[in-house]
Amino acid sequence: MALRGRFAAARGAWLVFEDEAGFSMTPPQAKTWSQRGHTPVVRVRGRSRRGISIAALTCYKPGHRSRLIYRPRRDDGRRDGRKSFSWRDYRDLLIAAHQQLGGPIVLVWDNLNVHKAADLRQWAAARQWLTISYLPPYAPDLNPVEGISSLLRRGWLLDVAFSTPEHLDQRIRRGLRLIQYRNHLMDGCLAETGLTIAPA
């Protein structure tokens, strides 16, 4: 992957990783310490499977500040509503990233079916500014966006009983906004994968 980084740097491109994560209103179960016979209990008003999916991009380029670009998608609870991102959602996210980054993109993502959809591949093939590469199967440890999701779960979403979908949405957006302004967190997520981006 260091070679991929050199290729991106040589082209003046951003090396961009993508991943999706789902966040539910259902409180996570956790283990903790307490006095014997006094199990701590967190009471919530109701359980809901409704939640939010986030498609996020971590963007790296030698000599530039790391960037985080994301799009949320809320599950409205309707059976006929789409819960996952469509190929058009990914297209729109990549167009927005290209506009914000102002340069070519080398995109690295997993082998999700929608990532390989014929319409998306046809659209991508017609874009000279976009090069797509796929991670090996079952290799989430090579994707720094996994670290962003982990930061959210262990930080801004930890120990919170969400009362409404809006409450969950607000906490996720707040956490992502704060991560966007903390370069060292995004750089740390890349370092955690063991990958490096070498200068040209």
TrEMBL record:
Coiled coil: none
Listed transmembrane segments: none
GO molecular function annotation: nucleic acid binding
Domain Tc1-like transposase DDE: 15-167
Pfam families with a match to the protein in the record: DDE_3
Protein name as catalogued: Transposase
Organism per entry: Streptomyces violarus
